[in-house]
Amino acid sequence: MRLERLALAVRIAATIPYVWLRVRLMPLPRALAGLMPRDGGAWRLAPGAWRHRPIQGQAPGARRQAPDRSDLILQLTDRILERRVALLRPSCMLRSLVLFRFLREAGIPVCVHFGVAREDAGLRGHSWLTLDGAPFAEPTDPSPRFQIVYSFPPGEGLTGH
């Protein structure tokens, strides 16, 4: 497990500058399409495997003790971004796109959304993920504050927006 965790951390760290460059050099839809995993993704989970399941003998509502793949991807991505890989400043967009790439590869059908909100002197942007229409890996739901201007994959993950 340690070697697998290390290999994933190295892949995430190597992907961060790639994602940053890709989004800056290409139109957004084309850049995002290139982040979708191909058929030969490294990990494949059964449908619904990203949901937390109780450990045998544990109450049904209790959270698992051992992190599943989505938790591991979240933890590693956040830790690596905190350390400013390739001197890149972490941002919500970089975080959401790297998470999008690896969670999709793991078989978790997340969608990425880009939104704007009017603030005092202008506009503020935010990027976040959703899973089954609900915010994923976000402390609060950003959709009431930010007007969604683009979602990828188009048409997925939008419920009532």
Give the ordered list of helices and strands.
HHHHEEEE
Provide the helix percentage. Answer: 25-40%
- How many domains comprise the coordinates? 1
The termini sit apart by 40 Å
Radius of gyration in whole Å, from Cα? 16 Å
Q: Low-confidence stretches at least 5 residues in length (pLDDT < 50)?
A: 40-66
The profile of the biggest β sheet is:
4 strands, antiparallel
Tell the overall outline. Answer: globular
The total of beta strands comes to 4
Individual helix count: 4
Mean pLDDT over the residues: 81
Describe the structure.
- This protein is an alpha+beta fold.
- It has one domain.
- The chain has helices at 2-25, 28-33, 69-82, 92-105, and strands at residues 111-119, 122-131, 134-136, 147-152.
- Strands 3-2-1-4 form a 4-stranded antiparallel sheet.
- A hairpin with a 2-residue loop joins strand 2 (122-131) and strand 3 (134-136).
- Helix 1 (2-25) crosses helix 4.
- It is globular and about 45 Å long.
Give me a quick take on this structure.
This protein is 36% helix and 17% strand. The chain is of the alpha+beta class and 161 residues long.
List the helices and strands and how they pair.
Layout lengths: L1 H24 L2 H6 L35 H14 L9 H14 L5 E9 L2 E10 L2 E3 L10 E6 L9
Antiparallel strand pairs: 1-2, 1-4, 2-3
Output the keywords.
single chain; 161 residues; alpha+beta; four-stranded antiparallel beta sheet; 4 strands
